[in-house]
Amino acid sequence: SIDLDGRVALVTGGARGLGAAYVRALHAAGARVVIADLLRDEGEALAAELGSDARYVHLDVTDEDSWALATASALDAFGSIDVLVNNAGIANAAPIEHLTLAKWDAVIAVNLTGVFLGCRAVVPAMKARGSGSIINISSVEGMRGSPGLHGYTASKFGVRGLSQSLAVELGTFGIRVNSVHPGLILTDMTTRIDPSKLDIPLGRPAVPDEVAGTIVFLASDASAFTSGAEFVVDGGMIA
Ligand code: NAD
């Protein structure tokens, strides 16, 4: 079985949805967890529930100073950041003529710039230790086009590309970088999507726990030779 004893994992957007499922699964596998999110109440409640091996830190992934504070506070609490899960994300949808620059900028800022800033923030500590696992959350929408999702799709393709360039640059320092591409998972982000309109071979959407196993695997030594890889977790939807 996978053992993350002694590892410290920071999960952005960890207060609810998929991120909270990743936090719970990493913690259950033995990791100490840092819940990094804008949502203070939800994040503090989850940390309190998990106990002394969990901390909430306030983080706006789009803000450099916020990253500096969050990583300093995680290092202060637990001494290392061995695993970074760049999960925070937002979605907006509009046909191209109605996609405002403000909406475009917002989705790129959180979903893509936020991942860049997160990777940049943890790499010095990972290089110093000679190890680390960075798990960047893209989407099936980072592998194909869908109507109305232009900013989201561009950001998620960007996350996939950034993961590739980082995997190549950081491998020599013992740092692995992989991307995960979930399909339709039931969270607050997807309440307005009708699963029956999608062609999912497994015949249903997933719950967040069904993606968490891939995250725990990538955080662990079970994936010690896995870097620059793309993990589709979509019930066969884009096959
Ligand atoms: P969600 O809306 O339930 O949760 C997103 C979390 O990110 C929230 O806790 C939110 O507070 C946090 N967040 C948003 N902006 C932030 C910021 N600037 N700084 C810090 N935290 C911020 O969404 P979810 O469905 O759990 O999605 C999580 C990730 O998975 C996203 O990157 C999303 O694009 C991706 N994803 C989701 C699905 C799905 O079907 N739900 C599919 C593919 C990919």
From TrEMBL:
Q: Which Pfam families match?
A: adh_short_C2
Key word Cell division present: no
What does the UniProt keyword field contain?
Oxidoreductase
**SUPFAM superfamilies (alphabetical):** NAD(P)-binding Rossmann-fold domains
Q: Which InterPro entries match?
A: NAD(P)-bd_dom_sf, Sc_DH/Rdtase_CS, SDR_fam
Q: Would the keyword Oxidoreductase turn up in this protein's UniProt record? A: yes
According to the lineage, what is the superkingdom?
Bacteria
Under the heading PANTHER family, the entry gives:
3-OXOACYL-[ACYL-CARRIER-PROTEIN] REDUCTASE, SHORT-CHAIN DEHYDROGENASES/REDUCTASES FAMILY MEMBER
Give the family this protein belongs to, as stated in its UniProt record. Answer: Belongs to the short-chain dehydrogenases/reductases (SDR) family.
Q: What is this protein called?
A: Glucose 1-dehydrogenase
The organism's lineage?
Answer: Bacteria, Bacillati, Actinomycetota, Actinomycetes, Micrococcales
